[in-house]
Design a protein that fits this description.
By secondary structure, this protein is an alpha/beta fold. Helices cover about 30% and strands about 30% of the residues. The chain is built from nine helices and 17 strands. This is Kinesin-like protein.
């Protein structure tokens, strides 16, 4: 079988509930419509099926792909959260680790999906809904006391930097201890007591991220960013005064992966080309790890191949839950990128290996 075969590929519809992959397609932009581009993506949410039309040969049959869930241009932010992410956050509140990856070509709606518009209730993104979910749960709990800590880091050209540290030149080291696993030495952590406080922490970190101008985007993220929420739950006596014991510790990683696109299309040269190369290598390493975990046949999982996978080692596999949300654009000029993401990258990163 080749990648050009017109075959329905069950790319990510595996039975491994610990790893789920969803795809969201944004609508055509006004600029794309004005330039005469048309949509080459047909979504069938009820079947988890995406049909991709071949822009190079309109007479050729569509290429079909299936995923755990898909969301078209009419999908609502809250439905996306309730159907895909709520269970994962519940597991974090019950003491497990969870990771949400945002992945896709620059300009495909990744920021809208993850951040949305906080001023418009119906358009709030995954991140805000996670924050609200956590603190609403805490407010309704009885005989339990919670501590919610937030940290924020970026991995830029395989160097780890604390986005909440005023010293933006400091590079941090990954360490490992038997009791805590892999951690970042000297990474700052802030106690937060409300949605507003944790949002302020994220805003400070976002302002410190490494961005660069490319042909794809005026301000394209050139680093992987990980916002880490640690939730500690202690049981208390009925009067709420005396701590009995630390009952649960869960961790939620919100991972914004650097823009995924072909180097030639970004116009990357010099330092930007070096950045793009590092990004692609780390994404490949992530793919190797997740593919090994889902495949289940490899005794060796190559966590050490990149800082990203090393850092997330304790939050991938085992009893942890992972959701990859991949964003795509429907315009005909993005055919190669969309085909690559649907037909190769997601299959490779998150699913059983197939002989394409």
């Amino acid at each position: 079988m080749t990648v050009d075969d017109n075959t329905v590929r069950s790319v990510c519809s595996n039975k491994q509930e610990s790893v789920r992959v969803i795809v969201r397609c944004r609508p055509l932009s006004e600029n794309e419509i004005a330039q005469g581009y048309h949509s080459i993506v047909v979504m069938h949410p009820e079947r988890g099926l995406i049909e991709l039309k071949n822009v190079k040969d309109p007479g050729e049959p569509t290429k079909d792909f299936t995923f755990d869930a898909i969301y078209d241009e009419n999908s609502k932010q809250i439905d996306l959260y309730d159907e895909t992410f709520r269970d994962l956050v519940n597991s974090v509140l019950n003491g497990f680790n969870g990771t949400i990856f945002a992945y896709g070509q620059t300009g495909t709606g990744k920021t809208y999906t993850m951040e949305g518009k906080n001023s418009v209730p119906g358009e709030r993104g995954v991140i805000f809904n996670c924050f609200e979910h956590i603190f609403q749960h805490i407010a309704s709990s009885r005989n339990q006391q919670y501590l919610v800590r937030a940290s924020y880091l970026e991995i830029y050209q395989e160097e780890v930097r604390d986005l909440l540290n005023r010293d933006d030149k400091a590079r941090l080291e990954l360490k490992e201890r038997p009791d805590v696993g892999v951690y970042v030495k000297d990474l700052s952590s802030f106690l937060t007591k409300s949605v507003e406080e944790i949002q302020r922490v994220m805003s400070v970190g976002n302002a410190n991220r490494s961005v660069g101008r490319t042909n794809m985007n005026e301000h394209s993220s050139r680093s992987h960013a990980i916002f880490i929420i640690t939730v500690e739950c202690s049981e208390t006596s009925p009067d709420g005064e005396n701590h009995i014991r630390l009952a649960l510790v869960g961790r939620l990683n919100l991972v914004d992966l650097a823009g995924s696109e072909r180097q030639a299309k970004t116009g990357a040269t010099g330092e930007r080309f070096k950045e793009a190369t590092k990004i692609n290598l780390s994404l490949s390493a992530l793919g190797n790890v997740i593919s090994s975990l889902v495949d289940g046949k490899n005794t060796h999982v190559p966590y050490r191949d990149s800082k990203l996978t090393r850092l997330l080692q304790d939050s991938l596999g085992g009893n942890s839950k992972t959701v990859m949300v991949a964003c795509i654009g429907p315009a005909s000029y993005n055919f190669e990128e969309t085909l690559g993401l649907l037909g190769i990258n997601l299959r490779y990163m998150c699913c059983f290996r197939f002989n394409f």
